[in-house]
Amino acid sequence: MKTWFITGGTPGGFGPAYADLALERGDNIVLTARRPQLLDAWSSPHGERALVLPLDVTDAQQIHTAVRAAEERFGRIDVLVNNAGRGWYGSVEGTSDADVRRSFELNFFSVAEVLRAVLPGMRARGSGWIINMSSVAGLRGVPGFGYYSAAKSAVEGLTEVLRREVAPFGIKVLAVEPGAFRTRAYSSFTDEPVSETVDAYLPLGQSVRASMIDQDGRQPGDPYRGVRAVLNAMDQAEPPHRLVLGTAGYDAVHGQLAGMIEELHTYEAASRSADFPPAS
Q1: Taking the complete model, does pTM exceed 0.90, yes or no?
Q2: Residue 134 appears among annotated catalytic residues
Q3: Which residue among 148, 149, 153, 186 is the active-site one?
Q4: DSSP tally for the chain: helices H, then strands E
Q5: Which tens digit of pLDDT belongs to each residue from 217-234?
Q6: Average pLDDT over residues 96-115
Q7: Catalytic residue among 91, 134, 135, 153
Q8: Is 224 a catalytic residue?
Q9: Which DSSP symbol is given to 199?
Q10: Active-site option among 147, 152, 153, 186
Q11: CA distance 278 to 274
């Protein structure tokens, strides 16, 4: 029996999907949310096996308090799912400084802080799993979501290095990159007006907002099928380092990487020409 610590427990999202499928396996669950009262109906049938905790992941003190509570209740954290996050839309030039910082605080710095809180226990036991929920946008930037893409790219880089650093301690690390999934991620766009500090980008913002509103509830990805794919990957003798979820996401990432390889080969001579000449 394992104990899972899952951030971002908003109903309808990936967090509860991870929790439900881990419970099916007989594991214990710690599911966190900024508004834990929304999870009362979910948690009650699971009794002592499910613990719901209040957590704003941008608050470092709350993070450490929640991790301690989880360890006191179940004795350990075996699997961490860094799932909390959300997107802000806006142009690179015209997004306000406040929104840029809010995006990185939630989508990147909170990930690092949760890792720092959970890793000591995993290192001491010599085992553990870390699942960092990234995004296809972290591998292929999306116009109108430049700072979200940048934050998820930072998660990708952090995850790659973390995997190598903690491998000697028996800890495994997986980056998961979903495409468009039928969670409630797009539902807030209806209530969010376009906000740009540079008017030239207002048409871009309006187009992005309209597209997200139109897609809400029609995204092709199923969170439960996506989580099952993650669990199956974790069960492999040699788990992958990253897992892209969704057909459109796979196609987008494949196209991005194929284009990068082609360009790399095209400019191979230019790349190699930058070294000092070989000593004669």
Answers
A1: yes
A2: yes
A3: 148
A4: 10, 7
A5: 788 789 999 999 999 999
A6: 97
A7: 134
A8: no
A9: G
A10: 152
A11: 12
